[in-house]
Amino acid sequence: MSELEEIGENLIEGQADKVRELTQAAVDKGIGIEKILDDGLIAGMMVVGERFKRKEIYLPEVLFSARAMKAGMEVLEPLLLSAGAKLKGKVILGTVQGDVHDIGKNLVAIMLKGAGFEVIDLGVSVSPQQFIDAAKEQGARLVGMSALLGTSMPMMQTTIEAFEAAGLKGQIKTMIGGAIVTQSYADKIGADGYAPDAASGVDKAKELLGLS
Ligand code: B1M
Fold first, then answer.
1. Of 143, 164, 202, 204, which one is least surrounded by beta carbons within 10 A?
2. Which residues line ligand 1 (CB under 6 A)?
């Protein structure tokens, strides 16, 4: 088994300490950070998702894996951030109301910070009004929303409509993402941008803010 497969296996098993240790070992060996992320941590989490879907594992196991993912991310985050350049602009980020999934959103935050953006992370289950208040208070021109549930995804539309009702659509751009979200959904609800993964999120943020 390769080092990265071993990270994935331990993540699946929920072994946070081991994942932290193996992630650090992979970094020390000079394996690329994004490769460790994609082929180790995220690959493991995808297997967890599939097993959860097939009801082979249950929520407590998923939570242990999520904790292991966080342990690995703690090793990678400072390295991703140190690659950052000059501040490019402010982004308000959050998981929409009714949804507590934050692993992907946190990855997007890390990548954006790494690319030089200031990120105001509102956390999970963020209401439309919280997004609006934060964007206004911070003078941000971009709001990013994450959703992973079929039941929470419509909250993205509600939030965009709330921006429209507050007269902010156009002035403040919206970007959406999350496993369940697609470009066609973004088009349907009038989001300004969609990104399928954290790295594309950075490109899309630059594009929406006219920085690319
Ligand atoms: Co939940 N869960 N979960 N879960 N969970 C899913 C999403 C699910 C697909 C599992 C399944 O059935 N196969 C399913 C949703 C089905 C659906 O609605 N279509 C599901 C369910 C049903 C639930 C509960 C309802 C279960 C229950 O209680 N019965 C419950 C909901 C609670 C709630 O939110 N109200 C629940 C709870 C949980 C845990 C708390 C146990 C835990 C979350 C822990 C945490 O996040 N801190 C959890 C987890 C871990 C998962 C899976 C296994 C993994 C999610 C994940 O972190 N993926 C997931 C299965 C799956 O997705 N395969 C599942 C890794 C992450 C890196 O990917 O978030 O997609 P992702 O982010 C990517 C891209 O999408 C993109 O960039 C990221 C990296 O490249 N991206 C953006 C994300 N946000 C973006 C924003 C952007 C741009 C790109 O711009 C702003």
1. 164
2. 42, 45-46, 48-49, 52-53, 59, 62-63, 66, 98-105, 107-108, 144-146, 148-150, 175-180, 195, 197-198, 201
